[in-house]
Amino acid sequence: MADGNKAAHRMLLGFVRLAIGIALLVYLAESQIIDFRTLAKLATAWPITLAALALIFLDITFMALRLCWLFRPQGLQLPFIRSLELTLVSSFFTTFLPGAAGGDLAKLFYAAKENKGRRTEIVTIVAFDRVVGLFSLLLLPLLFAPLFSGLIRSERVLQNLLITAAALAVCSLGAFSLCLINPPWMNRAAQWVSRLLPGRKVPERVLATMGVYRTNARFLFAALGASLVSNLILIVATALAIVVVSPNSLSLKMCLVVPLGDVANGLPLTPGGLGVGETAFNALFKVVGLQGGAEAILCWRIWRALVGLVGLILYLRGVGRVVFDTQEGGG
Q: Read out DSSP for 261-318?
């Protein structure tokens, strides 16, 4: 009975979040910030749509590579094809599931499947993969900021956003550096927490998993590089959407605001950031004197949903075991 109540509560929460996202879209449409008729241009701009679909699939490919490289030093093997399958299925759940962080939960579930003895390590790696993606997204606007120093000095909002992005990036880097350096007090803290969890060594195993990267830094840099390329591809895909909905707004300024908008779109406030992303992109584009931000991300959502259908096909076919011990080979 308790499990049924929890399931009903999760379902209700999911639909509430979906309703909030739809309400935000309706508000943007009523405020004439979004003109849904503009999206009809996608039908005639099919060459751009095909290019965008190819870019989004390429983005997913680099995310799959990132996850493969993070698994490699751990004595665990995630073959690239399996990783691509897992990332496509995760993309489908992220796009279509009206729940909290559905794509991440699906990735965790299938990655840990049939790996009972290594679940702590696998969950740690998949969660760290998410952290690397977020860190690279926060890093991108900071890397592009010197190109727009005049604009940033004139816009207090941009200054605050970049300071926030820098602070979050530094905190992420600091927390990870502690895991890599692994000072003695962290081990003592992990042992103390483990004593509160009888029969469990989860904190110590998490630290040990992160510690493996101390002698395998090249895999970390490879994963970060793949993540940066992945996020650059998203900027190009958003630029293609702008070409469709508001070609006069095509500008290098997008390199500064699109990553910040993607961070807001990734917040688990509504399914897939629906409504939240549109509101954020509209505000950010407006700050730098551009138009069409909300409509551009709607185009991106349509394209992402089409690619997500590939994930649906893979899900219906059935996802088997994807992670193997190195001695087992690729399955």
A: HHHHHTSTTSGGGTTHHHHHHHHHHHHTT---HHHHHHHHHHHHHHHHHHHHHHHHH-
Which candidate, 64, 111, 85, places its Cα nearest to that of 323? Answer: 111
> What pTM was computed for the model?
0.85
Q: In which region does residue 292 sit, left (phi positive, over 0), alpha (psi from -120 to 50) or beta (all else)?
A: left
H/E stretch holding 230 reads helix 217-245
Structure tokens at 119: 């679940």
Helix (H, G, I), strand (E, B) or coil at 325: strand
Residue 310 in tokens: 């590939």
Residue 237 belongs to what H/E stretch? helix 217-245
Among 17, 203, 197, CA closest to 102: 17
SS3 labels along 158-171 = HHHHHHHHHHHHHH
Polymer length of the chain: 331
d(CA 260, CA 230): 15
Helix H or strand E encompassing 243: helix 217-245
The span from the CA of 254 to the CA of 238, in Å, is: 8
The 10s digit of each residue's pLDDT in 21-78 is 677 667 677 776 777 777 778 878 889 999 999 999 999 999 999 999 999 988 889 9
CB burial string 14-48: b at 16+ within 10 A, e below: beebbebbeebbeebeeeebbeeebbeebeebeeb
Q: Is the pLDDT of residue 100 over 50?
A: no
Would you say 294 and 39 are in contact if contact means Cβ atoms under 8 Å apart? Answer: no
For the record, the structure tokens of 152 come out as: 């940033």
Read off the tokens for 61: 């490919």
Residue 99: what are its φ and ψ, rounded to 5°? -140, -175
Sorted by sequence, the CB contacts under 8 Å of residue 249 that are 6+ apart come out as: 242, 285, 290, 291, 292
